[in-house]
Amino acid sequence: PRYPLTAPTSEVETDPRELERFAEHFKQRRIKLGVTQADVGKALAHLKMPGVGSLSQSTICRFESLTLSHNNMVALKPILHSWLEKAEEAMKGKDATGELSGILPNTDKKRKRTSIAAPEKRLLEDFFRQQPRPSGERIAAIADKLDLKKNVVRNLDQTFHTSALHV
DNA sequence: ATGCATGAGAA
DNA sequence: TCTCATGCATA
Known about the structure:
By secondary structure, the chain is an all-alpha fold.
């Protein structure tokens, strides 16, 4: 745990009703933006606010549900407000780079790891045993037969030859 | 969403 | 030692 994010002394803007209003607004906007509580917490580190790092999903959740101490709410409000502003702006401009980088979560789809069933795997091993480093044509043929992408087959051949199991 | 634990700073 | 912000783990 890192510290201390306490309210800037005395009565800055401590109206509970205003906090409540903001928390609700924040939550609604966040959801509209399709961002999770955890995403927000992470993104806070990308704001350039001094002394502000990332926060956990727990804390964001508690902020939205007003289950933090009053002082804590007051301290966090400007931070989350700042994030929300930038997030709206980033969304509007679809700007994933520059100052707004990291404000919104990466939507880049990660390549799914290809998994090959055991029977097919044995078949491939047979192929590679017979003919290591197959030609592009042969790879294409195998890939077609097993309904896999050529690159998958090529890489599997590589894996097979480097595997200690087969030396 | 929340129970429980942790560690920092105040008293 | 007490208080409080915060996170982890889990329902």
